[in-house]
Amino acid sequence: MINKIIAFTALAISASPTLAADVIDREMEQINRSSWDGWYIGGSIGTAKAKDHDEAFPIAPGFTIPLTSEGENTSRGFHAGYMHQFGNLVFGAEYEYVDLDIQFIGQGLGPLPVYLEDSHLLKGRLGYAMGSAMAYVTGGMAYTRTNEAVGLKDWTPMVGAGVSLAVTDNIIIGGEYTHSYFDEFDGQAISGHLDNLSFRVSFKF
């Protein structure tokens, strides 16, 4: 009986490295599994701030004034996109609509209120994923519109960065910061920038 126990113990000890290696391999396979591939849709809520600073804003032929104004409001958005994972790198493209409704406060344009109504963003994304977490940078173009009374709209460059966490195979949460900047917006002497910091929830198919 003692001999059998000794033989069984020796067999278990000799098999332990193999079993441990199998467990490690399975864990590494789980970590490296391509879990970011696919289409996704979602929504966001955050804070958006806009500021413009014009050294010489024309108010009449031959007359200019320095004009500085800014505004802030809660932003709400909708996004849809696609991601593809290659190793730890994640490539993607995304469309996002953001409702801004930011009124510029400052010197303004007399009695005429000036708002940034909304923005449409076309973004490329490059991320680095480690299991269920990913950090990424983004860049592209933003199509931003003012209120109808002002009637300005233009495409401007945008850049940003964010972090995402896959809570489940289908639910992703995260935060993202985007920065749009403009010079001579819609051909006018208007320069400035728009910053948006948002919390995002997405559903991946």
Structure description:
With 205 residues, the protein is an alpha+beta fold. Helices cover 15% and strands 66% of the residues. Strands 1-2-3-5-6-7-8-9 form an eight-stranded antiparallel β-barrel. It is elongated. It starts with a helix and ends with a strand.
Query: What is the ordering of alpha helices and beta strands?
Result: HEEEEEEEEE
Low-confidence segments, ≥5 residues, pLDDT <50? 23-33
Helix content: 10-25%
**Alpha-beta content class:** alpha+beta
Q: In angstroms, what is the radius of gyration? A: 26 Å
Order of strands across the widest beta sheet? 1-2-3-5-6-7-8-9
Largest sheet: 8 strands, antiparallel, barrel
Q: Please, how many helices?
A: 1
Proportion in β-strands:
over 45%
Name the shape in a single word. Answer: elongated
Mean pLDDT metric: 84
> What's the total count of β strands?
9
* Straight-line N-to-C gap: 58 Å
Structure summary:
With 205 residues, this protein is an alpha+beta fold. It is 15% helix and 66% strand.
Which terms summarize this structure?
205 residues; alpha+beta; eight-stranded antiparallel barrel; 1 helix
Could you outline the blueprint of secondary structure elements for this entry?
Blueprint (H helix, E strand, L loop, with lengths): L1 H31 L5 E23 L2 E24 L2 E15 L1 E2 L8 E16 L2 E14 L6 E14 L4 E13 L7 E14 L1
Antiparallel strand pairs: 1-2, 1-9, 2-3, 2-4, 3-5, 5-6, 6-7, 7-8, 8-9
